[in-house]
Backbone:
């Protein structure tokens, strides 16, 4: 068992709700966060999101607001995607790179107004991101503000998630990959039709003071409280990258399979390195895999013949070990058999296509 | 999940393992993990048993249990040779959560040094280590 952290952990506005619900709380990126709501709840929480609706407290994630006449120019320099193509009310995924193409963070940016953008950061990277934003917006007529304290965040996800939130919304919810202000159960907030589970749903960015009441309301209407444990198994079945596992400063977006969100012609920081990697190819590529026999691969396990597992778990929906790994580029094809050294035992696996789990197929 | 508890008829190793010794056959012991261990693990989804005939050493790992989130070693409370493994845990590892002292047993071991049992704890002494 891990020893409890000596440093003071931050608590979200929903901390009391988690304690009341019997959550197992763990340190995560400086926050005390629920991993599951009871000692054997993870798989049930995962299934609730796949089959009905779940609600996650994601208030640990950070937000940066970039505004002003040259806000777009600043973000075009900071972010890998073509921010100019982002319509007002739209959402866009991107990575932020160093000059050498190493990934500093992966981010979602919402365009709230022509000259006002909100970027959601990973908790562990937030402070570095804010500093990086400020450095690279210097000299431009753009204002970078750390607004993480302003928001609590709830992710309501699953096939019934929109219906749960729609019932307490003053207007139709934003369509997929768009954002808008709505009044939900009397509280004004940003409603973002985005998520990290492979299901439909919304993410609510709201005043922390309103968060407990809105949490209670969506739970009362049928959303199952779900912790970071289920969030991780859900995103892995959907093959979404997790910063710190699949992504880091030592890896570039091309090898991570994120070339689709890199538009080198915009001249973002790191664009030349990304272009070079795209043209020349990379030595390794990130692939999803599933075990073809028993066993569960874990991060850090070596792939026989080269490569390393970045994430690994048991898929609650498939009932087999799944994960993602960097493997030599010539082996990065669905159907290729690989072997993974799981604590001294070679376990058989197969490179799969994305996503690892999808409702409309047999997985 | 089972209710918390530490039966009086078992012996305990501080690494959260229990031992059952049948007075009729005191050379063979049954091993498993305690309520505390399964609660800390969360829902067990995989049990990787050792093979029958292999030897185990007191204080060293002899098997692995995995929850969705993590893998943990299972520590042998006594030394000996494995004579039986609970094959039912292959398809139903959740028995470790649901019935840790019954259907969740892991292996039976022919003891090589029965005097090692003197170092184990009774239920009261083990419970005291948890508080």
Residues:
């Amino acid at each position: 068992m891990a020893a409890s952290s000596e440093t003071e952990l931050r608590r979200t506005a929903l901390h009391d709700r988690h304690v009341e619900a019997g959550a197992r709380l763990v340190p995560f990126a400086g926050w005390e966060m629920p991993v599951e709501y009871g000692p054997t709840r993870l798989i049930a929480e995962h299934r609730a999101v796949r089959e009905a609706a779940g609600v996650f407290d994601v208030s640990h994630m950070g937000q940066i607001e970039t505004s002003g006449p040259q806000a777009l120019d600043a973000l075009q320099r900071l972010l890998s995607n073509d921010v100019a193509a982002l319509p007002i009310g739209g959402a866009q995924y991107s990575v932020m790179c160093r000059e050498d193409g190493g990934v500093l963070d992966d981010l979602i940016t919402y365009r709230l107004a022509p000259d006002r953008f909100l970027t959601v950061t990973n908790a562990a990277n937030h402070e570095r991101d804010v500093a990086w934003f400020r450095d690279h917006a210097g000299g431009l007529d753009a204002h970078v503000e750390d607004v993480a304290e302003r928001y609590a965040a709830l992710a309501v996800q699953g096939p019934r998630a929109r219906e749960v939130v729609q019932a307490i919304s003053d207007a139709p919810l934003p369509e997929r990959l768009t954002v808008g202000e709505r009044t939900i159960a009397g509280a004004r907030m940003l409603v973002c039709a985005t998520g990290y589970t492979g299901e439909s749903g919304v993410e609510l960015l709201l005043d922390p003071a309103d968060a407990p009441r809105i949490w209670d309301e969506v739970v009362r209407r049928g959303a199952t409280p779900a912790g970071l444990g289920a969030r991780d198994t859900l995103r892995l079945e959907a093959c979404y990258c997790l910063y710190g596992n699949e992504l880091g400063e030592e890896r570039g977006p091309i090898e991570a399979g994120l070339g689709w969100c890199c538009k080198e012609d915009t001249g973002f920081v790191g664009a030349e390195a990304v272009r070079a990697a795209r043209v020349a190819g990379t030595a390794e590529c990130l692939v999803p895999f599933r075990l073809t026999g028993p066993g569960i691969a874990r991060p850090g396990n070596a792939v026989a013949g080269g490569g390393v597992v970045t994430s690994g778990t048991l898929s609650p929906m498939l009932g087999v070990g799944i994960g993602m790994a960097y493997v030599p580029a010539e082996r990065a094809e669905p159907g290729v058999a690989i072997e993974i050294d799981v604590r001294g035992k070679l376990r058989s696996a197969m490179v799969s296509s994305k996503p690892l789990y999808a409702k409309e197929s047999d997985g | 999940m089972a209710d918390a508890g530490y039966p009086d008829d078992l012996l305990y190793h501080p690494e959260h393992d229990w031992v059952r010794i049948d007075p009729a056959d005191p050379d063979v012991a049954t091993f498993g993990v305690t309520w505390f261990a399964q609660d800390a693990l969360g829902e067990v989804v995989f049990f990787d048993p050792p093979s029958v005939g292999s030897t185990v050493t007191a204080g060293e790992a002899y098997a692995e249990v995995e929850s969705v989130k993590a893998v943990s070693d299972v520590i042998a409370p006594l030394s000996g040779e494995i004579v039986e493994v609970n094959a039912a845990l292959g398809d139903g590892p959740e028995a470790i959560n649901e019935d840790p002292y019954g259907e969740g047993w892991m292996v039976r071991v022919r003891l090589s040094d029965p005097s090692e049992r003197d170092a184990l704890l009774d239920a009261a002494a083990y419970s005291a280590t948890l508080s």
